[in-house]
What does this fold into?
Amino acid sequence: MRFFLAFLLTFGIDQAIKYLFLTGFEFNSKCISLTLAINKGVAFSMLSFLGEWLKYIQIGLIIILLITFIKEKIIKNHPIISGILFGAAISNIVDRFLRGGVVDYVYWHCGFDFAIFNFADVMIDFAILMFAYFYFFDKIRTKVA
It folds into this structure.
């Protein structure tokens, strides 16, 4: 149940924010621009040359990851983090089908230019960092014990 709540909350928040930008919201400051961009690739627009194939490759990777998470009981042991990860990933996939690319909107340009990204990207990064933390923390705790 916690997995599905985290999934739905992450998916819903991401889609709501994207809708805001799709309806014309924009904000610019010295260091950050909140503006609509449709990313047909992945981070830094890499792999955009794959076109329509990219979304199917990503679906395949998500399915493999989901099977692995179920098999290894990762969802059972970390339901909230798993829900966040899959909710964010599916939200970006939905964009690819509905809008032809991922809806991005946060662009940092203070001191250096950074890739444009969205809430789902942040949640994916957060989930991966949490999984890495638990992986290494459990390794350290096991060695100490």
User: Anything to note?
Assistant: The chain has a mean pLDDT of 88. Residues 119-144 form the longest helix (26 residues). The helical segments are 2-22, 53-71, 74-77, 79-99, 119-144. Strands lie at 27-28, 32-39, 102-108.
